[in-house]
Design goal:
This protein is an alpha/beta fold. It has helices at 36-48, 122-125, 128-142, 144-164, 170-209, 232-246, 267-270, 273-295, 312-322; strands spanning 2-9, 17-20, 25-29, 67-76, 79-88, 91-96, 99-100, 113-116, 216-221, 257-262, 265-266, 300-304, 327-331, 341-346, 349-352. The protein folds into 2 domains: 1-112 and 299-353, P-loop containing nucleotide triphosphate hydrolases (Rossmann fold); 121-295, Glutathione S-transferase Yfyf (Class Pi), Chain A, domain 2 (Up-down Bundle), CATH 1.20.1050.90. Helix 3 (128-142) crosses helix 4, helix 5 crosses helix 6 (232-246) and helix 5 (170-209) crosses helix 8 (273-295). The structure holds adenosine-5'-triphosphate and magnesium ion.
Length: 353
Amino acid sequence: MKILSLGVKNFRNLQTQTIDFCDGLNVLCGKNAQGKTNTLEAIYLSTIGKSPKTRKDGEMIAFSHGHLEVFLKFEHLGIEKTIKLDIKHKQKSVFLNGVKLKKLSDVIGNFGSVYFSPEELNLIKAGPSHRRRFVDIILCQQDKSYLKDLQTFQKILAQRNALLKQENSKQQVFVWDKSLESITKRIYQKRKTFVEKLNIISKPIHSELTEGKEELEIIYTSQITDENISNFLEEMKNNLEKDILLGYTSYGLQNDDLVFKINKKDVKKHASQGQQRTVVLSLKLSELEILKSEYGGYPVLLLDDVLSELDENRREKLCKYLNNMQCILTCTEFDMNLNHHLYLVDGGVVVKK
Ligand SMILES: Nc1ncnc2c1ncn2[C@@H]1O[C@H](COP(=O)(O)OP(=O)(O)OP(=O)(O)O)[C@@H](O)[C@H]1O
Ligand SMILES: [Mg+2]
């Protein structure tokens, strides 16, 4: 996967422009608040149709404008493709090779990128939704039926939660539970299989990053288990009174989480800041490997300000990967002895040196 160019219009502080990118390592260098992160965000938008930073699409539209446009030209397996995404009147539209896609999520699976910024430490530190998102974004790129199930699951769950707040709704709730049953089974199985695969891939990566000192283990935790999955409807029924009191559904996949362990100890509770960062790096490198086999080539790696956070050893290990793929990296200063193409970012303008 290779980005040829990125066009932006009214995207945050970026001036209207088209930026041509090169093979290999592209380094975007500039002072603070010039538009480096914004450039990566604009690129990532083409991967899943959403920002890696915010859920509020309107935030990305340049101040005092009403719409934005992002135009990505990329090459994959020798074929050139374009993705155009615009946000107008709070409405998002996506075009693949000039043809409007029926649903925004249809864009998923066309352009692959992996985004890595210091905020990704949230994968460890913040709530379970960050970890579910990590799993879901990869699975959705691999498997269209997973994406469809996930969307239906979220819709049904929202409807069920709304019903719980209404009087005399038990019978209707039961109808929703029946539709949740089969979707829950499928999503659970896929998440479980995915985490098994993630373990196989991340273990050697993490071991290499830590020179054999740390063994990483990733545990999928869910209220659903192989043993109780056949009793799903019964569990839902047992929880109904509680759910009505709470006003939301307390049992199910919406509570899924991942637990990371290093040498059998919980990373969230016991690992140092540096160890946590290394776990995130292992997860991101694993994401690259998984998506590589999915897309038939490495996705584009977007590294926002992460080199300064890694020690020399980790940096070197990460840079070894960079030889095999296109990478767009941001920094305020670049002093590494690497083959790269330099871009200066200043006042929302990105210029190749
Ligand atoms: N909707 C918007 N319209 C206009 N400007 C915006 C909008 N959203 C954010 N900005 C501005 O864009 C500027 C650049 O942000 P960006 O995060 O890309 O900086 P950066 O170059 O990555 O800086 P740093 O090195 O500090 O990470 C910021 O000054 C921010 O205030
Ligand atoms: Mg930044």
